[in-house]
Structure to design on (172 residues):
């Protein structure tokens, strides 16, 4: 799952995830270095549109609580909850880092948490710490992707409820 969201965050540039990046001995000789191989899968423009939609999750959707918890970096994500509340998750990413949190019991016992109430706070605490090392900047979308920021009144004319229309950016 993390590999999928990481590929999405990099506009379709798929990289094999690796835990160990480098191994060296006491003298500093490099014994192993992971070589990142990457492959472009799909069109960057399609990923940009999807990321644009997923950014709204953290602005006005089920992930908006992350802002109240102090995470203010540009990010996109998706909450999820099974209908029997046995599983809850949040998968989210910035241009620099992706993380997935799952909440549940190994035996499948329901826990009554949702992705927003169970997994999102864990993700937020983790990303708040990790993001200190990265600039707060937006995703590098291709030049032919159009970003439009509409006024509150314009969005309301389009049928977007006022409480969800704040800070909304349309990407296509």
């Amino acid at each position: 799952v993390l590999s999928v969201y990481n590929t999405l965050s990099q506009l379709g540039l798929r990289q094999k995830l690796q835990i160990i990046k480098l191994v060296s001995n006491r003298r500093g000789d490099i014994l192993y270095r992971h070589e990142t191989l990457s492959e472009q899968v799909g069109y960057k423009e399609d990923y940009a549109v999807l990321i644009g939609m997923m950014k709204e999750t953290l602005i006005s959707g089920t992930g908006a609580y992350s802002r109240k918890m102090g995470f203010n970096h540009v990010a996109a994500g998706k909450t999820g909850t099974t209908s029997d509340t046995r599983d809850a998750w949040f998968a989210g990413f910035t241009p620099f880092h992706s993380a997935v949190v799952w909440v549940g019991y190994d035996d499948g016992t329901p826990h009554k948490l949702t992705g927003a109430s169970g997994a999102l706070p864990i993700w937020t605490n983790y990303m708040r710490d990790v993001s200190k090392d990265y600039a707060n900047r937006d995703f590098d979308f291709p030049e032919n992707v159009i970003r439009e920021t509409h006024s509150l009144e314009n969005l309301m004319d389009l049928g977007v409820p006022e409480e969800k229309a704040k800070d909304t950016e349309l990407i296509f």
